TrEMBL record:
<feature type="transmembrane region" description="Helical">
    <location>
        <begin position="20"/>
        <end position="41"/>
    </location>
</feature>
<keyword id="KW-1133">Transmembrane helix</keyword>
<keyword id="KW-0676">Redox-active center</keyword>
<feature type="domain" description="Thioredoxin">
    <location>
        <begin position="37"/>
        <end position="179"/>
    </location>
</feature>
<protein>
    <submittedName>
        <fullName>Thioredoxin</fullName>
    </submittedName>
</protein>
<feature type="compositionally biased region" description="Polar residues">
    <location>
        <begin position="207"/>
        <end position="221"/>
    </location>
</feature>
<dbReference type="InterPro" id="IPR013766">
    <property type="entry name" value="Thioredoxin_domain"/>
</dbReference>
<dbReference type="InterPro" id="IPR012336">
    <property type="entry name" value="Thioredoxin-like_fold"/>
</dbReference>
<comment type="similarity">
    <text>Belongs to the thioredoxin family. DsbA subfamily.</text>
</comment>
<keyword id="KW-0812">Transmembrane</keyword>
<dbReference type="Pfam" id="PF13462">
    <property type="entry name" value="Thioredoxin_4"/>
</dbReference>
<dbReference type="InterPro" id="IPR036249">
    <property type="entry name" value="Thioredoxin-like_sf"/>
</dbReference>
<keyword id="KW-0472">Membrane</keyword>
<dbReference type="GO" id="GO:0016491">
    <property type="term" value="F:oxidoreductase activity"/>
</dbReference>
<keyword id="KW-1015">Disulfide bond</keyword>
<keyword id="KW-0732">Signal</keyword>
<feature type="region of interest" description="Disordered">
    <location>
        <begin position="190"/>
        <end position="221"/>
    </location>
</feature>
């Protein structure tokens, strides 16, 4: 008996083209969301819940970008000088905040170099060495204001690992600020400077910091909901104005 031929139109098929398309879209979505979460974990604010003790966030000798005599509002920012998001915060949020709220708030910066940024520690050493000659704020502004020339590769897209090129820029900043260059180099290499960097990292970890930048306002972590820098800036300013009773 001859085998009966099956009608191709009635043969049971596998998943339809539409079903495969739906699965592909879901897979891509999962990968994209996963990528965003990885990026946020590495470079964006951590997610602490509780108010952190003032003596953990700030020490008597912690550096301030601006300071208010009344001490009513203190913002503590844990930073990584080579972190691209920190630089973007400086350009769009905290740098403008320091100028616009100068003398009305205290803005404290703490070191929290991340392992994926090879020049974060050398840059922190440069900032700390400048601080020992009374030029912390000026070096802070140089490092973020001229970020692309030392922190990024020549393509401008990826972080650099060229420590010599970075050090040449740090030396140029030191000369522009009128620092004693020999002392600047000694201080950069000193155990005391490294200890300050390590202390910042330890305090940040105690405060629940896992990424940069992470900000605390009067001991409570600032966790913005906005997805643009203008939105984040406005959220922070609204919070500060409330604490300042404006």
């Amino acid at each position: 008996m001859a085998k009966r031929k099956r009608n191709p139109l009635t043969v049971k098929k596998g998943l339809s083209a539409n079903a495969w398309t739906t699965i592909a879209v879901l897979v891509v979505a999962v990968l994209v969301i996963g990528g965003v979460l990885v990026f946020q974990y590495k470079d964006s604010p951590a997610t602490g819940e509780d108010t952190v003790a003032a003596d953990v966030l700030r020490h008597p000798d912690s550096h301030t970008v601006t300071e208010a005599k009344n001490g009513k509002v203190t913002v503590v920012e844990f930073i990584d000088y080579q972190c691209p998001v920190c630089e973007a915060y400086y350009q769009n949020v905290t740098g403008k905040l320091a100028n616009d709220y100068s003398g009305r708030i205290t803005l404290v910066t703490r070191n929290f170099p991340l392992p994926m940024h090879p020049l974060a520690v050398p840059a922190a050493r440069a900032a700390e060495a400048a601080a020992l000659q009374g030029k912390y704020r000026e070096m802070y502004d140089k490092l973020y204001g001229d970020y692309r020339t030392w922190a990024l590769q020549p393509d401008g897209q990826n972080v650099s690992s060229d420590e010599k090129r970075a050090q040449d820029r740090f030396d140029a900043y030191a000369k522009e600020l009128g620092l004693d260059l020999d002392r600047f180099h000694r201080d950069q290499a000193s155990p005391a400077v490294q200890q300050r960097i390590d202390q910042g990292k330890a305090d940040g970890q105690q405060a629940g910091v896992t990424g940069t930048p992470t900000l605390f306002v009067n001991g409570t972590q600032f966790r913005p909901t906005g997805n643009t820098y203008p939105m984040i800036s406005q959220e922070l300013r609204t919070l500060l104005d409330k604490d300042l009773d404006l």
